[in-house]
Amino acid sequence: MTSSQQPIVRLEQADCLAFLAALSDASVDVIVTDPAYSGMNEWLQLGNGRIVGQYADKGTEDGKWFQEFQDSEANYGRFLSQCQRVLNPNTGHIYIMFDSYSLLSLGPLVRDYFAVKNLITWDKVHIGMGHYFRRRHEYIIFATTSNKRKLRHQSFPDVWRFKRLHRAPYATQKPVELFQAMIHASAEPGFTVCDPFMGSGSSAIAALKNDCHYLGSDIAADAVQLAQERVAAYQQTGQDILQLKPASLPDEKVFWE
Ligand SMILES: C[S@@+](CC[C@H](N)C(=O)[O-])C[C@H]1O[C@@H](n2cnc3c(N)ncnc32)[C@H](O)[C@@H]1O
User: Fold this and answer.
1) Residue 27 half-sphere exposure, CB side, CA atoms within 13 Å?
2) What tens digit of pLDDT does each residue of 36-85 get?
3) Ligand 1: which residue has its CA nearest to atom 7?
4) Quick one: 28 exposed, middle or buried, by C-beta within 10 A (0-12, 13-18, 19+)?
5) For a pocket test of ligand 1, which of 13, 15, 37, 66 has the largest count of ligand atoms closer than 8 A to its C-beta?
6) Is the CB of 102 within 6 Å of ligand 1?
């Protein structure tokens, strides 16, 4: 992509499986994604008054919980199989985020479809909710479709420290820096990046910052509208209207600078 060309950005309201099924084989270079797993929430039996909103109302118009992806092994296998199909078999890289519950239940399935290379830890700096110990980290599995394409540099660490967002406009909004780290490590300018669980479009902003094309979907209409407004504002002004402050730590150099 030359500097005069605008990247292609497609944001759709769709179920992740339908969205991926409509993409051509080998049409994506890098997948970065933060799925809405149902396992941890069902296991913890949230929504009994301790958490804002009722978990049982998830995905409804008035409910505060967003819809989740039913993470049975069969459904997750369908998702991974579609990811495998749309990724370029020679060069594809994939980053999938996990909470600790889903990592143990679904993480091993990733090996059935991809060559798993790393388990990255996102240190969120500040503690969040928790069951027994309060959670301060999440995981990201990094995997590839073949051994042919390496990362852009060999010096990147597998622990990333970015402050989690506090009271962000979207319920589960993640720092753009998290996706910037993934995309910077794996994508050249002009590559196509895809996120089938895009939420508020943090990964879209990260793709644009790396001069990449972007294909994103979310099942929720409010998420898609937020992502559309966010991307449009970023393309017009260069400002990210949903994350006004950096999540990186002032005393730590991020590896894309
Ligand atoms: C953890 S959030 C992603 C947040 C996003 N990374 C951000 O920074 O805003 C997961 C998203 O998956 C969406 N979702 C749930 N089930 C889905 C499905 N079957 N297909 C596509 N999106 C789904 C939810 O609406 C939610 O926005």
Assistant:
1) 12
2) 987 665 655 554 444 445 555 565 666 555 677 888 899 999 999 999 99
3) 173
4) buried
5) 66
6) no
**Domain for residue 257, yes or no?**
no
CA distance to 49, 228, 243, per residue, from 215 (Å): 37, 12, 21
pLDDT digits (tens, 9 = 90+) for 101-123: 899 999 999 999 999 999 999 99
Domain that holds residue 139: 9-237
Spatial neighbors of 24 by CB under 8 A, at least 6 apart, are 86
Which CATH number goes with the domain that contains 134?
A: 3.40.50.150
**C-alpha of residue 39 to centroid of ligand 1, in Å:** 14
Geometric angle at alpha carbon 104, from 100 and 108, rounded to 5°? 130
Cβ partners under 8 Å of residue 155, min gap 6: 255
Spatial separation of the C-alpha atoms in residues 161 and 176, rounded to whole Å: 12
Q: Is residue 228 part of a domain?
A: yes
CA distances to 2, 9, 42, 72, 244 from 141, rounded to whole Å, are: 31, 25, 22, 18, 28
Closest ligand 1 atom to 198 CA:
5
Q: Is residue 243 part of a domain?
A: no
Count how many domains the chain has: 1
Is 112 a member of any domain? yes
User: pLDDT class for 162, splitting at 50, 70, 90?
Assistant: very high
For the whole prediction, is pTM greater than 0.85?
yes
Q: Which residue has the tokens 């950096």?
A: 246
